[in-house]
Structure formats: structure tokens, C-alpha cells
């Protein structure tokens, strides 16, 4: 059976690694912040002290890390992945990173006779926990075929996007839609709330009509219950929108809606909402209209 190394045990990484363990894969884990491996070692994972230690004996190394700077540290730093990777190893990053970094990682892995896939996911925390993520993958399609079994232990679908960098590009385009969708959803709810419409009735309408979306489905109970615990954080959404803005500039693609959504999420971050769920963007609108989006006045 494929030996797996898993690096990055946050909101998404920990349940992904847990699903691999439940399917019987041998998994060695590492997290930059100590203490996050305890639950997984209880499920049978081995724990490593460095990314290099994770990598040396693995057939497949998966990283799920927050941003480009953290990826640089884990791959290129002292005791990093690329200093320890052996020929034939598949290294797969499921974070949301810039396409340019994904292409560089593929080149540098190839220089070690290893294979790199940029394989971000969609589905957020609930899908990570239930093993129903969707992988969008850039790189060598033949390599993707070789690791389908562990991928399907964590997800329900694998979509091949093209050569290196294609997975990262697809994820930024996808999350641009998600960010705009969330902003539109919250703004529509603010209009209804300001106009005296019962929020629960309005959101029933949204989820039953042409405005229905996966985000509306996920965020309706969070907004009505004022539960801003993280499924996907506001600060990570803003990070992705910033990356998408840089990408669209490089592609000379006009993105006025992306820029508007990015500005709204920047306002949310400036209010200290970054570590809350993306639905906390609604708190900006609550301040502007003087009402909570679940009905009561502030």
C-alpha cells in the first residue's frame, strides 16, 4: 500500500489525513505548529519532527498549507521536502497557491526525479470531514492515475485540468466565483432585512429559487444562528482573491466584480473578522444597516 506523508494539519488537512487513516493507508504527519498531530496519532498516524522526515520514506507527500510563504518554507527551508525527496516520489500540494509557484515546484521536483501535482480542493471543512472533496489537478495525468486510490479516500471527484499550474489557476478562478457569490448573498440579505422582510423567510426563498447556490446552502444556517465558527475563513478567502487579482492582471483579464468583492473582504479583515468564517462578512453590512442579518436590531 502507498506510504503517505501529510504536512499541514489545519482546518482542512487534519480531516483529510484522518480519512486516509480510516481507509487503512499508512500516514506520517507533520505540522509547523506543535500539538496538532495528537488526534491523528490516536488514529494510528506516525508523527515526524520535520518535513524532510515525513518525505524520506513516503511514496506520496501531500501538503495542505495556508499560503505561498508557508509553502516556500516547507518545500525549500532547512529540512524541507525538496532536500529529502527521493526519485519516483509523488509530491502533491492541495493548498491554494499561485500558479507561478506551482510551476516552479514542478520544475524543482523534476530536478530531483520526483513528480509534483498542484491539486487544490473545493468543498471546505464539511467536505474534508465527510471525504467528499473535489480535486482539481495540474501536472502529469499519468501520475494522477497512479494515486487515484488515496485521492478517492479523501474526495468524491478528481478533475484533471491540464499541465502544471492548471490546478492552481482553476482554483483561483473557482474561488473568485465563490467570493463574489458570498458577497452577493450577504448583500441581498441586507436589502431584504432593511426592507423589513423576515430573514428566515427570505433565505428560504433564496434556497428555493434562482439565487440558490452551494454557498447559500452552507451559510444560511450560519447567518441565522450567528455561528461564525470556521468552515473557510474570511482571511483565506481574501488571500485567494488577492492571488486571483494578481493572476488576472498577468493574464490581462478585466475583473471588476473580483475587485469589488476583494474590497469588501478587505473591509471585513480591517474589522478584525479575518479568523472567522467567510459568512462573518455579513457583520460589515449589519454595521451599515443597523440591524443583525437574522432579524434583531443592533
Automatic annotation (TrEMBL):
Any matching Pfam family: NAD_binding_11
UniProt superkingdom: Bacteria
6-phosphogluconate dehydrogenase NADP-binding domain location: 3-162
Keyword Chloroplast: no
Residues spanning the membrane: none
Record keywords: NAD, Oxidoreductase
Residues annotated as domain 3-hydroxyisobutyrate dehydrogenase-like NAD-binding: 165-281
Family as reported in the entry's similarity comment: Belongs to the HIBADH-related family.
Classification via PANTHER family: 3-HYDROXYISOBUTYRATE DEHYDROGENASE-LIKE 1, MITOCHONDRIAL-RELATED
The protein, known as: NAD(P)-dependent oxidoreductase
Species in which this protein is naturally found: Paenibacillus spongiae
